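Example record

Each entry pairs one chain with its bound ligand, protoporphyrin IX containing FE.
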Amino acid sequence: MNNVAKNVKAFEDIHSLCVSCLLSSPRELSINRPSAIGVIYESPTRTTRSPWYAQVSNDVTKISLNSTRVLNLHKLRKKAWERGLGFRALAIYAPRIKAKVDLLLSKIADRCGQPIDITEYAMFFGFDVMGDIGFSKDFHMLEQESEHPAIKGVHESMLAIGVLGTVPWLLSMISKVPGAAASFSRFTTWCHQELQKKREIMANEAAMLKDQDQDPRDIISWLLKALNEGDPSAPPGEIAIQEDAPIPLASLFQMRKLYYLASNPNSYRRLQAVIHQEFPKGINDWTYEKNIPYLNYVIQETLRLMPSVPGGLPRLTPPQGLMIDDQFIPGGTIVSVPTYTVQRDERFWSDADAFKPERWESLSTETSAWIPFTRGQWVCPGRNLAMMELRMALSRIALQYTISFAHTDAGKNFDAGVKDTFTLTLPSLHLLFTPL
Ligand code: HEM
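Structure tokens for the complex follow.
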């Protein structure tokens, strides 16, 4: 049982003593019930983000989307992000992600038969993809197998507070920690400079009436386009867009799936069989467009067992309070559903701790107690991009390699080293890749 599981087990035991609700401070409730997911997070939106999100400021012109607590402003502002991460934009990003997957696979090929720390290579891959998709900027981290100086800044500051992860509010946390602030400012300075360069490029293009009708090529350009066109969904001011700019780079790519697949060779063999059926001529046949349900099930099952944010996302009940089942929760209470706990509860999942991708054949992510991207107005707008990246990388690995732990303790060490630091921090995962 890893550290996260041990802590959560203690939490679950307390939960089970008090009818699924845990009073974690005088006005905070952690509610381990699937019925609470709809009431707390889904539409119609009855709660708002808790004051915890106001760490940077309450002034809506000076904060990122992720810190915005005013419901109608958040809804409006999110539209620009949804365009920058929507299906039209993803079609533009996909070939560039594929190019990075090719590079990742070539690095794996170079190291065939030798242990590879896939946590590190996934990090290089993830930052390279998000540099490109976020800013049209290539960090060349995979190529050079080392960190870009700007990324070193964010990485060092995250490590200084023991946090690595996929959610934007990490950034506001880091900026408040004295030991982490200096390296973090190298990163934000880089983001602001890139933002400025993008502005100049867009202004030049507008002056030359060039590319006016083309969709933007990266997420930040979608936000700038909204700003330039006076669209109501644009970040409300100069500081707001500066706060938004680093968000794509906080969305760290992780390869937890490979831990579960190396631990469950039958599931990996099934994944390989399914992928080979789809691409009988192997790599020459491979395309990222195919929808392969079992591949989705593997990703969903990993996000169930190891969600990036294991704790509950805190929301504030409205002044009139709200009902969860037959229970009245007074106004001004901070409520949340504990993600890790609800996603591993035997009452809601059979054989809850087991990795069983096939369980998803008869389940839906919308109606199960599955909330790794949260739900409703708050849902992660990057989820389709994240799923696309994961599908591409995983299907290519399954098509070309068998995987195993590099030594007998590699799996155990990984499992024991996973830490709950608001988001999950993953230790090294040493794997062997053997060509098929
Ligand atoms: C497996 C990968 C990912 C996971 C598990 C994840 C998870 C989450 C979660 C749980 C939240 C809600 C945070 C909260 O309300 O406090 C969130 C928000 C957000 N995520 Fe992701 N995320 C992932 C990848 C991405 C990517 C690739 C992007 C691309 C830029 C992204 C952009 C965002 C943004 C902009 C928000 C703020 C949404 C809002 O305020 O409504 N995420 N994510």
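Residues 178-207 form the longest helix (30 residues).
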